[in-house]
Amino acid sequence: MGEVRQKDKLAREVKSEMLETTPIWCRHHILDLDDFTPAEIELVLETTDAMKEVLSRSIKKVPALRGKTVITLFNESSTRTRSSFELAAKNLSADVISLSAQASSAVKGESLVDTIRTFEALGADIVVMRHSHSGAPYIAARHMQANMVNAGDGWHAHPTQALLDLYTIREHKISIKGLKVTIIGDIKHSRVARSNIWGLTAMGAEVSVCCPFTLLPAGLDIVGHHFPRVRIEPEIELALRGADVVMTLRLQHERQQSGLLPSIREYVKLYQLTEARLAQAKADAIVLHPGPVNEDIEISLAVAQGPKSVINEQITNGVAVRMALLYLLARGNRR
After folding, report:
1. Tens digits of per-residue pLDDT, 186-214?
2. Where in the chain are the domains?
3. pTM for the full model?
4. What is the structure's pLDDT at 335?
5. What are φ and ψ of residue 140, in 5° steps?
6. CATH numeric code, 159-311
7. Rounded CA separation 243/232 (Å)
8. Which of 247, 243, 237, 152 is nearest to 197 (CA)?
9. What pLDDT is stored for residue 103 in this prediction?
């Protein structure tokens, strides 16, 4: 009981410290976490707490975005992210229009900017975009009055995934500051890894990355404007030692075909997260994965479905986090 009270006290102290510097929400777009302050991230996480309370009700719907129109445009196939955004918008009573690239005029040669202008002419208040080309949401955002939410662009960024990962970690660890987080997998091509590194380091976590050097972005260990410093450890056992949080990334088969890996079998041998390897982490470590999971490739089935896995919690939290972001964009911070 005393330990529980101590944890509650720590949680209150952390929240109090963050709220003293919490700004009024003034963001018009959500493109990445590279320019988010810790206070802004905390505001999103705090708002997510309220949205999780809504989702716990028998009727999971509130009128916060009634009269608002949310358009989702996905240039790439997606199940989790797209359904999560659309469910989040509907839970807030927004009108939702769902489009794919194949169903838009882009197949007839219409430019991205013209597509965005068409959306605004139709009355869009918020556009949620996933695009295969890095930077596409940034281009669109420069030409629109509506709010833009980046739902993943190329290899570049996936800010809402990173925010739901931060929320999931905070649920289990109370404070993110000082945690040792190990990210294992294809860092070079992972928009999830990039946004998580920005968010985790902003909140004070110590981030280590583990992968073959062929799957490591150039300049990742350089201090400067372009990317925060992280620890690089190619030996998985060393990377996992003492970790509070372990995140594995989906390995795409194209990496082997492009010559970046000798074989999938070799990758599994050296980098798969197994129960034996996870034992190097702390006893209360948690395991995350952005999905979809290649079971017994980047992570063993026993770990993915084991007691340390919070993968299903990530999916559930994704709806609440995206509800929070849509609410903040559409209504602003009225506290």
Report:
1. 999 999 999 999 999 999 999 999 999 99
2. 15-156+316-331, 159-311
3. 0.89
4. 37
5. -60, -40
6. 3.40.50.1370
7. 14
8. 247
9. 54
